[in-house]
Description:
Number of domains of chain A: 1
Shape of chain B: globular
Number of strands of chain B: 14
Number of strands of chain A: 4
Radius of gyration of chain A: 20 Å
Distance between the termini of chain A: 18 Å
Largest sheet of chain A: 2 strands, antiparallel
Number of helices of chain B: 7
Strand content of chain A: 15-25%
Largest sheet of chain B: 5 strands, mixed
Strand order of the largest sheet of chain B: 2-1-5-9-7
Order of helices and strands of chain A: HEEHEEH
Number of helices of chain A: 3
Helix content of chain A: 55-70%
Structural class of chain B: alpha/beta
Oligomer: heterodimer
Distance between the termini of chain B: 29 Å
Strand content of chain B: 25-35%
Structural class of chain A: alpha+beta
Number of domains of chain B: 2
Radius of gyration of chain B: 18 Å
Amino acid sequence: MTNIDNLVNEIRLATDFQINKKALREKIQTDLHITHNGGMFKITPELYAFIKTWPDDEMYLEDIYQNPIKIDKKEFLLTAQQHYQLVMNQWHNEYHELRKIRKI
Amino acid sequence: MNTMNLEKLEKSRGIVAFAINTETTNYVEIAERTLKVASQTLALPYTILSPEVSTRNQRFDIDTHQFVQWNNFDRHSVYELSPYEETLVIDADYLILDNSLNKIFDTQWDYLLQRNSYALTQEWPSTMGPNSLPFVWATVFAFRKTVRSKLFFDLVGRVQYNYEYYRNLFNIVERNFRNDYAFAIADYILNGYALGKQSIPGNMLTVDQVIKSITVRGSQLIIKDETRSFVIPRTNIHIMSKAYLQSNNFLSLVDNL
């Protein structure tokens, strides 16, 4: 195998890892969604922190479909924390598996 | 018409796919395979619709590199033909491997489209032409039997029957009729000539190349094509290789899921 063939193979392997990594991230971004009181929310650190700092137990929050949804703060935070942790753990584990099969 | 599960329940929910065989592709067999998996994954009943075709179209086949017969018309009739109050509609070549789509039924909408998609080996254009609307993907969508949904599908039908006019009006590059285009136009009009925001969450993965095999390894799928292997999570995938979907390899995958 010539130098240029080796180079092509190495670049292809590196590219494949980036594609695999992207596919995993896309799946995780989908999994981060939860439903609450008829609304759909994507759990992000920003959303979680914002609700955590809200002083009242009830609030209205815009969901991903641009509808105002009534939120029970305690219930939402509990669900969001559990869901976020579950999905991020899954991401970490699956990313670790991907790295193991990475050649470059 | 070849249908199953026609009994309508009080608040019924199910999966529907259109499948009309052509000279080169056994869509009914493909749909039976993919819908079996979808039904198991989402715990929902399914129906395969095979209405009489009024007009024929052509698509480029990635396996043979030729244009082949394609019966993609009359998708708008799903509103009348679906036996369910809440329907998830998928293309026969859409493989549902995770239950994320169940979440959408807990929220409020009349119809819900897939607005984002990416492919393993190429970048999709973001719009239907340089000065046209953003892409919408009719590969997977959901609707409830409401007045607004009825309006939407009536509009999709109107766009289909007058496609040349709407193609010019919205600067669509491709001459061939695609449901993706008709859905995007109807949605735009129904939103008061504004871009819609409601979408099925996530980015639909399209496997856009000729496939040799797909195997399951734990929570991962290993997709092999002619030259490369991709390791992706167990997620919903749109498989464009009809040759693979009709192969014994795919049958084994479906049986072992």
